[in-house]
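Supplementary material to the annual report.
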Amino acid sequence: MSNNIYGGDEVNAIVLDLGTHSCKAGYSGDDTPKAVFPSVVGVQAGSGNGMEVDTGSGAGAGGKGSGRKLSVGFQPLSTKQIGMEVQSPFGPDDLFSDWELVEALYNHAMKDRLSVKPEEFALMLAEPTHNSRAARERLVELVFEGLQAPALYLARSAMLSAFATARQTALVVDAGFRATTAAAVQDGYVLQKTVSRTPLAGQLLDTAAQAVADAKYSPLRPRYSFRRTEVKPGEFQLTSVDMAGVTSSFRLWSTEQVAAELKEATCRTSEGRFYEAEGVHVPTVVYELPDGQELLLGPERFRMPELFFQPAAFVGQFQGLTLAPDARSVPEVVADTISKCDVDLRKDMYSGAILTGGTSLIHGFRERLEKEMVELVPSGTKLKLAAATNSVERRFSTWIGGSILSSLGSFQQLWMSKKEYAEHGAPLVNRKCP
Amino acid sequence: MGDVKDILGMSRVKEEKDDKPAPVKKEKMKRPEGMSREAFALLGGSHPIIASQLVSVKKNDILKKPKPSTKGIVTYQYKPFKNQARTDDLELCHWVKCYKGANGIIREPDDSEYPYAKYNKKVQLMKYNAEEYDSLIRPDSGNWTKEETDYLYDLCEQFDLRWHVIFDRYEWPQAPPPGRSLEDLKERYYTVARKMLVSRQGREAPVANHPLVKQPFNKQAEQERKRALLALLARTPQQISEDHAILAEARAIEEKRKAEAGAAKRAAAAAAAAQQAAAAAAAAAPRTTSPAQPGRPAAAPAAPGAPVAPGVSAPGALAAPGAVAAGRALSPAPAMLVSELRHPAEFESAVPPGTPSLFDAEVKTYKPKPGVYLRGAHTQAMATQQAANMTGGSRAFKAVEATLTELQSPTALFGPRVMTRATSGAWLALRSEVIALHETRRNLANRLNADDRPGGSAARRPEKRRRP
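Predicted assembly:
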């Protein structure tokens, strides 16, 4: 028993958080994950023998029956690959759908990045907050049969985010990649009926950034498609690389990475509602793309995050951006979650709201959301939206919560072990990990 | 040098030579205990040593070798452990602090029980068995089947009676529409639990203090409360400000009522005391004063010679406000109430040392700043200050002057010719009482005008007692 952490007992457990943007993996008890890599898999139609291992790029297990060759991690996806499709394990409803990819990702995390044997470590897995029963049971099967882990716990992301901020009761607003989710956590349990989501999230902003660049200048060029050499000090020369054979999904994904950098560097949230007329006075910044091109961005910087708050009004500004007509703005989603809570809980939710997620790192996002919320809630209620100031804490709050939870002494009795799985089967997970 | 002094005629004083002054005895600093000799020598005596640093030097001497523990050398071992709170035998590994003795590795003494196993606490639910269900609970279950009740109990046990979570996870497809609300669930559980508790104890008496029995769950009350809370949350800012205004007004009305009640009580008490004093005075030795002497301390000795004149006039004035005050309940506007009226005999000239000799405008003993004061001038100043403090200004003061004049004593108006402590105090007291009388009268008049009652109140403007 470790005496220096109050109530802590670091056991051999690994925390895995497979999010829509990136997969985080590390040891329980640590304060940051050791391995972070994109949660997409490069898929190449295999040559037929199914178990090809590509040593140079750290590939995961090859497709067992489908003959696919899977490559996971930064390396294979950063260089130009012929015939490789980029696929995400998430389906259209943002739940796991391609289980082979999920297994490949987990294997890569543990065997290649952390260099551990899954049989020796208990697994704390973070699942999407709105995960369905069927998906959970399937995941449990995958872990026990495929990875042969000795013990397992499935925890919902919202619950872990609340634990990361040392709270058991909170309203968790997670501004993620594919969706922004708002959920109420009461006494350490996520209230399933209060979860509400909106597709206004990081991926949408990436597309918006791409549209901005495409409209104003020329289409963004992915990194692999050119080579930039310094011919003279200060002067660069650009040579195009032959792009034949590159699949469209690969190109799209690589372009999206460039757009993501653009978004992270330039987006700002305006303090009040953003009106175009004011945009004239917005100072412009210069952003240099990887291929040397310089973009001058002014009011576009404010227009992009405004999508979160006025989706219907601003979606038309970005060419090629499509949004479901009933997509709700982020403050509406949060208000919706609170209204689904019981009346007694609302006061706690108002005063204990947490904002997490990588997309929330946009400058001024938290203040703007708090301000919009104040208008939507009944007047006189005290509303407080807390957010970690550290960017690492915000991006990895789910993982950190998992690390905290799995290293607590009193948690050790809650694991679901392999023996219990063998006795009762996968549906036991709904009892053991509510 | 010396002959110059001779020439000038200066005296020559033999001064002792002090070119070699006795050196100030330098304090030899003692080497502090925690410090080594060499280190102290380096100091050179120029830097004062802070005591606290020295204390720590001794205690946490990091250069000192750690004492070997009797248990052995500390090693950490990665060992699997059993968790007694688990039903299967999952063994995970963790680091344990072990001591390595001379022969081998000895483990932590209390490694038999996992220290966190004791935190596995669960809420104790009383579960019914089949017979109890059939006999006790089934009769008035309403639309609850046994399966559904079992399911509810199962959830309660799983979630330790956290009602909001239970309600959230409650999924019973055969539940009658429109589905079970939180109050429904609570009601069902608490009724069943109550019946179980009572039946298991035999009678109701032993468990009468148990919260389940003492405060039964009231579904209606809960629903009402939630509705009210919703309405409260849904107030607009206008409604909130209206509510606040109403509350403030209500508070003001309450306070006024309380003050009136207090004043009425005091007046009633004073009237009762007046009755008593009147009875006592009538029976006592005859006095030149008028019969009603309210608020007088029981020991009313024969008035001393000097303050007789103001003493005679004072009760006359005293009687009137006393009657007024006893007559009806007043708002606490008058500056003085009956109980505060003072007899001139209270003012003594010969006071014990330490008691200030002067009085201020409120006729309290007053200690002035150091300096010379003339009692007469000071008292006159106090008198004018009393006049100035009156609410109503100079017009009101004219009425006061008129009263004082009616007393037909120049002393009352201008002040005693000889200002001793007793006389000046008595005179100031007289003035303040007359002022209070007039203020009270004016308040009454205002009240009557404001209320606009057609003269229905019992105590009308009282007649001033006149001295013959």
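The longest strand of chain A covers residues 180-186.
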